[in-house]
Amino acid sequence: MQTATTVAATFNLDDPNESRIQKAIHIFYTDCDQLHAMRQGTAKGLRMVWTLGSFHPERANARVEWSVLHWAVDETSVRVQRCKDEAEARAEYQRAGVPDSRLPGVRFPPR
Description:
alpha+beta, 6 strands, about 40% strand, globular
């Protein structure tokens, strides 16, 4: 299936937090990862960026892995929401808006 990339995000690179998140997203979606959609918003008073992506392992017969990432701009953290397939990932991306505290999170080291 051929999918289009939808990007609805503009980063203020003079803002150190936005610049750091933009760089992290850029680094994350390299090599085997493909960014399909990205948007910005606010959830529970936090500036957020949500990305929809897929990982394409290079091993034979490997299944494509889909995920929605919840990037907290001011906390400089990301939560990964793994999905069973593209349909579930797209549905979760559309519902994204409130970070789910049950999701595992990773905090980036400060500059």
